[in-house]
Structure formats: structure tokens, C-alpha cells
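INPUT
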Amino acid sequence: MKELERRARCVRSSAVIRAWEYRQRRLAKGIWFRFRRVLAEASEAYAVPPEVMDDLVARGARLEPVGTDFEPKKRLVFLERSWAEKVPQRRAVALQLGPELLGERDLVLVAFDSPSVRS
Amino acid sequence: MDEPRYGGRVSFRRRLLDTLRAMEPVLEEPGVLVVGSQVPNLLEPGAAATLVVSQDVDFAIPVSCHSPIKTALRKVRGLQPSRDEPSVWVPDDRDLLEVNFIGVDPDLNDAADARVLQDPELPLLVFGALSLIFPGEPLEVEGLKIPLPRPAGLVLEKLVTDRSGEKGNRDLLVALALLPNMTDSGFEELLVAYAKLRPELRYVVRSNLTILSLMGPSLGMPDPRPERGRVAALLRRFEACEKEAL
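OUTPUT
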């Protein structure tokens, strides 16, 4: 019975932590959720050199705000697929949480085409 | 059908179905549901059970039926309560799976809460998140009637619960495995249930979906990568609920 009581306490403790995380969601603690949320919308991701990203931004690509919350800052932009396909020196990055994705500073993202929850 | 064996003498599907058959007296009790990670295994065509999720089966027991279920358990052969933890029934031989009994209490309707139902014979850890689960159509396999929950509640229960580590990842993949089985009305049910959660729990659901979206493949589990579009669409629908709530 002690084990069940311990697990029940763990569940209740987790609830307290989650409530705290929720209150922090717009602050530093929420940055990872906001970052993952942006990446979840992308069907493809490409790492690009800084000068290429400079050029994309100069040509009107809109920076995702969450990137500025990191230090050093990350630059993430969504491009139409046709534009992304023409970006020079791009390197495909797997959209999986891990050092490769998290280590990139400049990422070009391609959004899903009107995804359906049932397709 | 080739059935995965995972190193055992008997296929996992056989062990799962034989365990459920051994527990038939309990399954026949009104309100009892098979929940947890074996549900997607059972929902595969012919209950193929190809996913490597866990080596146990979860039974949700309504606390209001606690007494008749204890009576039904006395008819069970081939498993017995663990000496250390009587809410877990362990098999007499390795051809069956462990069975975990967990409690459901509609009065404990805070999905973030849990309490213990003290009982020397069948104590239960009662999870508030299980109040999100409602009975669905029973599944009939090899003459065995298996009471299953409606997928919407089970998906939400998986997404609302704290997930971490390998077990947590597999639980999220279980939620993913359930999505293809859901109808339009199932998704509507999911959205309605989501909207009733407290804001921080809705946030947990969305956060878990973003983790699911960025997971790599795991051995024996559905590959989440081809389903990322479906996950993104579900996130959007949940976010639309948030905007409606403002």
C-alpha cells in the first residue's frame, strides 16, 4: 500500500509542477514548448549558413519570434516550398529532438500543406 | 499470421489474449475496461498485437464496483495477487502477462489528481485522468468479449498525463496509434473533452503533442514521422478551442 501512496503523491506533485510550468509559459520556462510548437508545424527543415539567412531576411522572410528568446539567438523562417527549394547551401535536418536540430542556429522551415487530422 | 514472440515461447498476441481470457470473470463485470497501452494492440486487425509497448495489461475498475470485482477475481485461475503489491496480479507462468488494476472514480474528476483506495485484498490507485475514459464498443476476439474505452478518452488520458523518459515516449506513441481508429465524431468528442480540462492541463496536452511531433522511431512502435501532419492538425484544432474560450 505504501507504494501506491507514493505513486499517488508523485501524481499530485507532478500536478503542482505542471501548474508552475503553466504559469511560466510566457517566460523562459516556456521557451521549449514555443520552440517545439513552431517545429511541429514544419514538414521539412533545412539548416543554412548565416549569410544565406541574412539574405532571406533581407528579402522579406519573417523571423519566428521564439528564436530571439534563445541566447545565442536562433533564426527560424517559414518559406513556401518553391522558395525553400531554391535556397542555396541548404542542408536537410531531421525534425527530431536531438543535438543536430537543437544545435542549428539558422533554420528554414516548410509548413505542412493544410494538414488534416484524419489524413 | 506471423505473431511477434519477443523472445518468449508463445507469441505476445497469444499471451495477451490468454491473459484476458483468464481474467474473463472480471471482464464480465459491468464498468470494467481494458485500458492503457494494450488497447492499440487489440485494435489492430485481428487483435494482431504487433506493438511492443509493455508486458502487462491495465484494467480500469470503477470504485463503485470494487466489491463484485473482488468476488469475480476469486474465480480467476493462472494469476494471483503480487505479495508486495496486490493491485498487480502476476501470472503463475510466463505464458501470461501481469495485470494491473487501477481505479476510476467519477467523483475524482480532476485529471491531475490521484488517491489510493485502501483495501487489503484489492487496493487501487485511483487516477483522476481515468475519469476522461468512457466505455466504447466491446471487441470480440476468438469468442472473448473485451470491454474497451472509446478512443477519444483514451487519447486524451495519454496526452494529459505527465510523460517522461522511454515509458513516456511509448505512451505518446500509443496515443498516436489510436488516432487512425478515430471517427469524425470521435475527434469532436476529443475536442469537447479537451475544452473541459483546466488550462494548465490543456497546455500539457499541447506540449505532449509537440514532443510527439518531434520524436524519432522506436523499435516495435508506430513510426511517428509520417504522422507529423496529423499531429500538427490536431494541435491546430486544440488551439482553435483555446481561441474560442477567450
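end of record. The CA atoms of residues 152 and 190 of chain B lie 5 Å apart.
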